[in-house]
Specification:
This protein folds into two domains: 73 residues, no CATH class; 153 residues, Hypothetical protein, domain 2 (Endonuclease III, domain 1, Orthogonal Bundle), CATH 1.10.340.30. The protein contains 13 helices and two strands; from the N terminus they run αβαααααααααααβα. A two-stranded parallel ribbon has the order 1-2. The longest helix has 18 residues. About 10% of the residues have low confidence.
């Protein structure tokens, strides 16, 4: 018999990438930025209009445009009946008015067609979430993020709303894979946690994406979940080593002092709701 070929030396097993679980991420980010105030928002039709105005602009601009729209027309039925040019003039201060004005008018009139000339969408809260989301998705220009915002913030349903910040942070932490697109991310993330964690996840991740895990030059040395981030910048980590958390939970920024934790942090664009509600 021919001699057996020498066995090839085994390659050393690659060390697993560091990871952070969703519950730990929610806990640490809430400790860092929260608590988060889950306050009532606008009714669904107004929330939908506000969501359109908030696309591709800042919170300040979208609030300015929404206030101007409501001051000019009084209610959304008048907006639905108005000329597009008049809507455009009312929301000019919010940016992309030429795109958003016809979109708002089209969506409102489509709701009137589908809902017996009513803009009251509170009936969606009585539907299974999948059906409520599908109802909203039939409206022109309403994608999974906008539908999630309306269901979650306006109707209190555990719907995931993935914006660019949440998508970026989730991919960097390895919670969603690199091949998962923004639309699929809603399904993946919603299925990855219990319903009661959907809102805290949204609030924590969007805040972290805005303040630390930025699109350009993320502040990895100031990140409270950098210990488990496979995308972390080791150089930034080393540079910030002298400011690691003293409680041993995770490297990163020291816990802020004072009474900050006693003041809930509102999610983006809730201030205008307080001002406009009776």
């Amino acid at each position: 018999m021919p001699p057996k070929a020498a066995a090839k030396p085994r390659r050393p097993r690659r060390a697993q990438k560091p990871g952070v679980t969703i519950p730990d991420a929610i806990r640490l980010l809430t400790q860092e930025y929260g608590p988060f105030a889950n306050e009532p928002r606008l009714d669904p039709a107004h929330e939908l209009t506000f969501t359109i105005l908030s696309q591709h602009t800042s919170d300040r601009n979208s609030e300015r445009a929404f206030r101007s729209l409501m001051q000019r027309f009084g209610d959304l039925y008048a907006v639905a009946a108005a000329d597009v040019d008049d809507i455009e003039a009312a929301i000019a201060g919010g940016g992309l008015a030429k795109v958003k004005a016809p979109r708002i008018k089209t969506v409102l009139n489509r709701i009137l067609e589908l809902n017996a000339n009513s803009l009251d969408l509170r009936f969606l809260a009585e539907m299974p979430m999948h059906d409520a989301r599908a109802w909203l998705r039939q409206l022109p220009g309403i994608g999974p993020k906008s539908a999630g915002i309306i269901l979650s913030f306006s109707l209190g349903m555990p719907a995931m709303a993935v914006d660019t910040h949440i998508f970026r942070v989730s991919q960097r932490l390895g919670i969603i894979g690199p091949k998962v697109n923004a639309e699929k991310a809603h399904e993946v993330l919603e299925a990855a946690m219990p319903p009661e964690d959907v809102y805290p996840f949204h609030a924590a991740f969007i805040t972290h994406g805005r303040q630390v895990c930025k699109a350009q030059r993320p502040l990895c040395g100031a990140c409270v979940v950098n210990y488990g981030c496979p995308s972390r910048d080791e150089k930034a980590m080393n540079a910030a080593a002298d400011s690691d958390r003293p409680d041993g939970q995770a490297p990163g920024r020291r816990r802020r002092g004072g009474d900050r934790a006693a003041t809930p942090t509102p999610v983006p664009h809730t201030q205008v709701v307080k001002e406009l509600q009776p």
